[in-house]
């Protein structure tokens, strides 16, 4: 998860670089609640996800031995 900022927003290509699914699978997961809801701005033209939400998703699907401790 070192490619993800601790806070801030991620656009879809950034999210998909760390969550190995297709765009259509990602959007289906957003619709059914499996993946975090996006934040939209500028009249619904820009879609992004909170970095904290993506980190939480990764932590929820990772096993206890998969996470490295911060130094």
From TrEMBL:
This is Helix-turn-helix transcriptional regulator. InterPro entries: AlpA. The lineage of its organism: Bacteria, Pseudomonadati, Pseudomonadota, Gammaproteobacteria, Lysobacterales. It comes from the Bacteria. Pfam families: Phage_AlpA.
